[in-house]
Design a protein that fits this description.
Blueprint (H helix, E strand, L loop, with lengths): L5 E8 L2 E9 L4 E6 L18 E3 L4 E3 L2 E6 L7 H4 L2 H6 L7 H8 L8 H17 L2 E9 L7 H12 L5 E7 L10 H10 L4 E4 L7 H18 L2 E6 L9 H11 L6 E5 L8 H14 L2 E4 L10 H6 L4 E3 L16 H12 L4 H10 L2 H6 L15 E3 L5 H7 L5 E4 L2 E5 L8
Parallel strand pairs: 1-4, 1-5, 6-7, 7-8, 8-9, 9-10, 10-11, 11-12, 12-13
Antiparallel strand pairs: 1-2, 2-3, 5-14, 14-15, 15-16
Helix pairs in contact: 4-5, 7-8, 8-9, 11-12
Length: 418
């Protein structure tokens, strides 16, 4: 048998007692064996020496993180946008969300693909260090930005291939009917290689226009064999129903399981019967949800959707842009903040938050499930902590990030007291 690429010893695994040794080749996990108290290193398929070895020291080892929603084309643009859009987006019941979007559009004037690429590249380096393996990355497509956002992110996607899976979303941020010519630009973005068809139907002026927006983008996704990712109902208005429109369109066009709904904050204002009805419709449509509760005063009804069997993931959403002034692309930091916003403070809920940046993320994006088991991809994280509570308390960068059976990032923090 050939020597493995990596052996990780003394690992704690979620939901499994004891400590474990994990043997990885470049393409897959070869073996996962429980260590015996009297024999620290298991003998089955575990060599006595390896080219590379990690002692996890009892820390939690997990699959890599998924960021199911990041406006990667906008990162680090807050100074250019100014404070007004941020104030509008984060106030009260988010009545100013539309005004914020209109105000933030100014940063795209004169934007180049090189600008977008340089800022995205900075963030994706942080992605590697923080163990983020998959990013659903939104790129604005509209008459003002043209295809500069898509072109910049496609370039970054290729540079980071094998380290971060960047799924570029062609996103009509300013609407379709409100911004004539945008539909043609989204179509061209898909032709050039964008991975996902985006949408933001609630921003249109009428419900009829919102439905036309949904129908056009779902039809484009069906025709080009793409998934759909739409920002829906992103304001505190109980009359907004574009989440329902999206689920119905997926069902009507045979696109079950091919879409995700981002934000859906208006759901926080729905009466209970409406919530239950929407949850049932979403489940039938195979519609996953992404919530970013740290970026606005309203948030998705996460507990209700999870109870109904509908997958929900967390996303970074924004990094130092017109909608959020912070962000390090650290999904544990996002989960830590979400714990407070959602009231997810008991240990079982902390486990749920870890699911929302790992297993639920893969599910929402329609990707094959992952686990620390033989045959799975040779990607894993050694986290700073032995339990979900410790990991989220510290929300540190992983001690080790393993991709393709090799360590691609390692972080250690040392404090000296005098």
């Amino acid at each position: 048998m050939t020597e493995p690429a990596l052996v990780v010893r003394n690992a704690t695994l979620r939901g499994r007692p004891g400590t474990w040794t994990i043997v990885l080749d470049q393409d897959a996990i070869r073996a996962v064996e429980r260590q015996q108290a009297t024999t620290p290193v298991p003998t089955h398929e575990v060599p006595t020496e390896a080219p590379t070895e990690i002692d996890a020291e009892g820390n939690l080892v997990t699959i890599p993180f998924v960021d199911a929603h990041l406006h990667l084309c906008k990162v680090h643009t807050l100074d250019a946008a100014g404070d007004n859009p941020l104030a509008e987006y984060t106030s009260g019941t988010m009545g100013g969300a539309l005004t914020a979007i209109e105000g933030a559009a100014a940063v795209k004037r004169g934007q180049t693909a090189d600008d977008v690429y340089a800022r995205a590249r900075q963030t994706l380096h942080a992605s590697v260090a923080n163990g983020v393996r998959v990013v659903q990355a939104f790129a604005d497509v509209d008459p003002l930005a043209g295809l500069t956002g898509v072109e910049g992110l496609l370039r970054a996607r290729e540079e980071f291939r094998g380290r971060v899976d960047v799924q570029v979303v062609a996103f009509p941020q300013d609407g379709l009917l409100k911004a004539p010519g945008t539909e043609e630009l989204v179509t061209e973005a898909i032709r050039r290689g964008a991975d996902v068809v985006g949408g933001i139907p609630w921003i249109e002026h009428t419900d009829a226009d919102a439905k036309a927006h949904v129908d056009a983008m779902v039809t484009l996704a069906q025709r080009t064999n793409r998934r759909v990712a739409m920002l829906v109902d992103d304001a505190g208005d109980p009359s907004l129903r574009t989440t329902e429109m999206l689920a119905a369109a997926l069902l009507g066009r045979g696109m079950v399981g091919r879409g995700s709904a981002q934000h859906a904050r208006a759901m926080a204002t729905y009466p209970e019967p409406t919530v239950r009805r929407l949850a049932g419709l979403a489940k039938a449509a195979g519609l996953g949800f992404v919530t970013d509760p740290h970026t606005g005063p309203l948030h998705l009804r996460v507990t209700d959707l999870l109870a109904a069997g509908v997958p929900v993931a967390l996303g970074q959403d924004d990094i130092e842009d017109a909608y959020y002034p912070f962000g390090r692309h650290n999904l544990l930091e996002v989960a830590f903040v979400a714990a407070h916003v959602l009231g997810y403070l008991a240990d079982p809920r902390l486990e749920t938050l870890l699911d929302m940046v790992t297993t639920q993320g893969y599910r929402v994006l329609g990707m094959p499930p992952r686990a620390i088991e033989p045959g799975a991809p040779a990607d894993l994280l050694v986290l700073d902590g032995r339990t979900a509570r410790e990991v989220l308390t510290r929300h540190s960068a992983p001690l080790a990030v393993v991709t393709g059976g090799r360590v691609v990032a390692s972080t250690r923090t040392v404090t000296e007291l005098f």
